[in-house]
Write a structure and sequence with these properties.
This protein is α/β, with parallel strands linked by helices and 120 residues long. The chain folds into 2 domains: 57 residues, 2,3-Dihydroxybiphenyl 1,2-Dioxygenase, domain 1, CATH 3.10.180.10; 56 residues, Signal recognition particle alu RNA binding heterodimer, srp9/1 (2-Layer Sandwich), CATH 3.30.720.110. Helices cover 18% and strands 41% of the residues. The two termini are 28 Å apart.
Length: 120
């Protein structure tokens, strides 16, 4: 079995595309309009993708507080400096649950926790 994508229902499609493209670093792969008022954009750099779904009929999305998406980076310090230069707030300090992994959190435009992870 292969994991295909994670769907995130978003409030503002363009704002979310900018975040996942310019902050996370994912490339836009395809854009679809399935039914009137619903637009979908897939972003990713490999097999696994993030699907952004914007439904104009939904006024406010509901993101779970205990859900996060993790993206691996080469250097947490470099990523933190990049995010600060873009005015994106860091939600935590660097967390290191074991010697092999460390990470920090930011929030996407919809309040979803995004982890940037450095593997040792």
């Amino acid at each position: 079995m292969k994991f295909c994508w994670c769907t995130i229902t978003v409030n503002n499609l363009e704002e979310s595309i900018i975040f996942y493209r310019d902050v996370v670093g994912l490339k836009e792969r395809r854009r679809l309009q399935t039914v009137p008022g619903v637009e979908i954009v897939f972003l990713g750099n490999g097999e696994t993708q993030v699907e952004l779904l914007c439904n104009k009929n939904i006024k406010k999305t509901n993101i779970g507080a205990d859900i996060s998406l993790g993206f691996q980076v080469d250097s947490l310090e470099d990523k933190m400096a990049e995010l600060k230069s873009k005015g994106i707030g860091i939600q935590s300090g660097i967390i290191q649950p074991n010697p092999a992994v460390k990470f920090f959190y930011v929030l996407d435009p919809n309040g979803l926790k995004i982890q940037f992870v450095e593997m040792q």
